[in-house]
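Dear colleague,

Following up on Tuesday's group meeting, I ran the structure prediction for the three-component complex that the binding team flagged. I've pasted the input sequences exactly as they went in, so you can double-check that nothing got truncated or mislabelled along the way. The structure tokens for the whole assembly follow below. Feel free to forward this to whoever is handling the docking comparison.

Inputs:
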Amino acid sequence: MTDTLLEIDRLSVDYETARGDLKALRDISFDIRKGEIVGIVGESGCGKSTLISSILRLTAPNTRFRQGEVRFKGEDLLQLPERKMRDLRGSDISIVFQDPMQTHNPVLSIGQQMLDIQHRSKASKAEKRARAAQMLGAVGIPDPEARLDQFPHEFSGGMRQRIAIAMALMSEPDLLIADEPTTALDATLEVQIIERLQELQQQFDCAILFISHHLGVIAELCDRVVVMYAGAVVESGEVREIFHDPKHPYTRRLIDCDPGHIKERARVLPTIPGEVPDLANLPGGCIFRDRCDQAMPRCASQVPPLAKLKEGHHAACWLNHEEAAE
Amino acid sequence: MTLLDVKNLKTSYGPVNVLAGVSFAVEPGETYALVGESGSGKTTVIRAIAGMAPAQEGSVKFDGQEIRGASERTLRPLRKDIAMMFQDPVGSLSPRLTIRSLITEPYRIQGMKDRDLDAEARRLLEMVNLPSHFADRYPYQLSGGQARRVGVARALALEPKLILADEPTAGLDVSVQGELLNLMNDLRERLGLAMVIITHNLNVVRHVADRMGILYLGRLVEEGSTEAVFHDPRHPYTRCLLSANPEPDPDARLERIALKGEPPSLLKRPSGCEFRERCPFAQEICTQTPQWEVDNGHGLRCLAPLHQGRAA
Amino acid sequence: MAKSRSELGQIIHGVARDPLGLMGLIIVGTIVFCAIFAYWIVPFDPVGMNIKSRLQGPSWTHLLGTDQLGRDTFSRVIAGGQVALQVALPAVFGAMAIGLTLGMIAGYGPKWLDNLLMLLFDTIRSFPTVMFALAVVALVGPSLQTVVFVVMATSIPTYGRVARTQTLTLRNSEFILAERSMGASMTRILGVHMLPNIVGVLAVLAAMDIPTVIALEAGLSFLGLGVKPPTPSWGALLKDGYSLIRQTPWLVVGGGLPIILATLGFTFLGESLRDVVDPKLRKQR
């Protein structure tokens, strides 16, 4: 496929620790096409952060890439020399982090920081400044020209996150990675940010990898969804497929758990009892087996593969296999 | 008798008046939710009630006793009856203590040393459905959900009459959030607790609160039974909050009421209705200052209230 | 997450896993061992004179040669280590204990007390250590105790300030708020909840401070303000070596090398300790 932008292919990543290898990512495969918004959903410990740092190759020193490739425009990023990787970060691939209060350098004005990130451009200082103001305007900061001279602490959390988005989009990247960009914000601001992202995505025609644990936001924003659990992809597909016809028990129950779903006051809210398995000491078979109410003998012995159910819908569960129905 | 009666509570830090007169009451066994964005003053309200933030004016009556501005010595015995829960599940546990020490801390503080603390620890862990071997663990060895249960166990140790909980579900995964809310609902019924929960998560409020108040810039703008507020929000701000709640359904991509801009600075409170500049329904009359009016148990501070069924 | 091991055991294990930390541990261990068993280890009496064999170079009998009075330098180095630790350990731990207490009170107590203590700390710090030492020595005469007192008094503010800063950061953390909401007394909050979270940072500081104090003791002895001759001290050795450097360089080596080694050893140990006790790094292990 020619329009594939990023392709994660059977990626496995471990962390070496005193307790043995922590299998943070196992056999991750999915892709992002040009101009598409892909959401990654998962709860704590699912490997979201490891995945992002692996794509950007900003991993901790005890990280070991065990197998697989991260192909960006056909090139395996894991094999790229560091210098080339540095050129890629912040120009072809940009990132917006979770905490807007810690993203900006507190002692430099916003304008200065926005000039600094244009260091690769040959434009004059005035042109760069005009571009910075234009970007601030694009993310909805009123009176951008004047606000360029202000410092990060003079902006609210919501504004800072929008500035972070403006800075990330400045280089017109092909891929924007948004790591829980709305988690630290109030619901009202969260909505403003996702609406803004939608507009900007149209305007700049970049692909977005949007990581969140908030199902509502994912449903609202994304074209396709990847569901992760304990370091593995358990399901991926078109957003409607995932939310209306989930094929993995974890996805189904995760959606059931979201209280935004339940309109009337419930006596007892649905939950998923149990804990995420220890990644340093993984049980055999399906990783979700211990918490699954539909587990079968087979789930204990064999790891279910991420199988294609139909065009644009994959799931890793034995329930979807013919034999299971019998 | 009303358990907690807060009247016209005001707090300023220098020129910044964070609370501009907050009044609400909680009956025994009732759960009251205070909802608002960051900067609305919700955290200050519960800290001021517990004597941990200043409150220059107003009154806080607990069980009929005035406790605003009371000395620590006066408050001490009351701390048995009022327990607090803080936002960060792990961060609100003293990091170098074992879980056993942490959940039996209230007994030690209140000088109940004659109790069998080991037995109490086991009882409390069982009450929040944690295995008893957790007693030997340290906070950093717990997941957010487990740490939150420890927080609940500690809050319940002395069988309080009132729990003040700051964002009890913050930082929890959805699959765990439900467990915690179920647990709290269950314990509340069994023990007849009253709770004040502050949160910006409306999805949580719907399932736990009997009544709720909406806080904007340190003032209540709407208050009523949870059902009434959810089904018939009268204040435009409430309506905006309710609509800013993305649903886990791609086809529900919303008929949303856009809230303009961000909350104004507390140093520059707008004239007239303080929500006016952000209000999608603002009218000319809104330049006047709205008063708090109560109609059939439903309180409102708005000169142009919305009516049921009136869409955006 | 081996909870079977004690906290101290875990820390030592953590330090030993880091190459620099292991080196520090070995050097410091050797120094401490030599200091404790000095009088069993020394081949000669460190104060015994032997005019016949004065100013000798290194040999198998005298590993580091002898000084102008024929005393065995190696023996004096070993015995000097004992003196160095006799000054450094009580001075540093005394300063740490007092600084910790005052710093926590300053950080948690009322504003006026904070201001008062800070004023006191700044006043002490504004005296140059050597001037202060000169004044004290002039008053009570040079002795080991004097050096300990001077060093302790001048380093209390450093510990006090760090403890105060840590206390200020911790006092608004949620777990302290939670303790307050349960009605915990100030002594309980400081002693049970703050102290264990602050003491690690100060212990690191102390480990890194010990070589400074050893150097200071050497300096004071060098100036004749420290321990009285003939008690062996690294500073006194250095002083003798300095005046006799034309005749033999070995005395300077004998006085200087242990100071350098002690500095490196304690610094390595301190740095490695800092990484190990840092709760943020600790969580990942």
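The first helix of chain C runs from residue 7 to 17.

Cheers,
M.
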